[in-house]
Predict the structure of ABC transporter domain-containing protein.
Amino acid sequence: MSDMLFMNVHDLVKHFKVANSSDVVHAVDGVSFSIYRNETLAVVGESGSGKTTLGRLLIRLVEPTSGAIELDGQDISNLSDARMKPLRRRIQMIFQDPYSSLDPRMSVEQTLGEALAIHGLAKHSRKERIAELLTLVGLDPSLAGRFPHQFSGGQRQRIGIARALSVEPEMIVGDEPVSALDVSVRAQVLNLLSDIRARLGLTFVMITHDLGVVRHSADRIIVLYLGKIVEIGAADDVFTQPRHPYTRALIKATPDPFRLRREATEILGGEVPSPIAPPSGCRFHTRCPMARDICSKEEPALETRKPRHLSACHFAHEVVPPISQEPPPRLYQQRLDIIRAAYAGKDT
Ligand code: SF4
């Protein structure tokens, strides 16, 4: 990760009007942050946190209600389609469901060829470039004539990655890029993304509901709750010393080899409140185990807790680090016995 700024987001807001109603969904509600060149920035939160909308705002798939998105110092939040076209090439997206994001009637060669043609790339060496892209994502170039349904889920996501890379972007936004895949192929695709990012010097924004997915790959983490940033900081700091109770709950919900996986909703209790009528004061107060009177009345500011580590909680200094991931020896032995028995095909 470098300190060179790639993108600056200022007080970005996206509200959606509900059809046939005066209600408004507060999907993203005034977020500000920077994205640095060559970094992997994870945007984490439960469903309803606004993370997918934020990703789409960054690549201008949806128009912001207000706020600014600066790319190399230029505000791109209101640029016309014509002026956005050359910039779109610089920022690409990988979608959650590779099957629905690929046209089933187009072969891989046609899909990648179309992306190259739109931007006038590799005019005289298109076949070679397509073969190069497929090799880059670990697919045999001889499969270029096949159609999406002839590939596995993991292979389809590799095709989606090849399509994003085909226009030589500087930044990729991955919207839950592995959550639709089998657990067995998730690690392969994550490793591929990490490898490609390092080799090509890309900036990567990874949107996910699962902190475990970015535990070892993110440089920095943004935690979103109901359209607001509640914590932002270096990945190590956020994981070892979270400064917001919500982040702490997400960390406790990440799977590890010794605990059964639990969702954040199970640990916190209740669902994320409706973004149509967010709670007063701190939006997290209806679920927060540390909430006190002031929390429903005054909205906490996003404040610096240590250099480049900010959180929005009136009692940030009281957040206890998540318990050690080290299990007690007896529990460790019991879990080990269960795992061994499972591998031996026994039921315990
Ligand atoms: Fe919890 Fe209050 Fe902190 Fe919000 S401000 S996270 S409700 S303690």
The domain at 1-90+169-186+195-348 is CATH 3.40.50.300 (Rossmann fold). The chain is about 30% helix and 20% strand. The first strand starts at residue 5 and ends at 17.
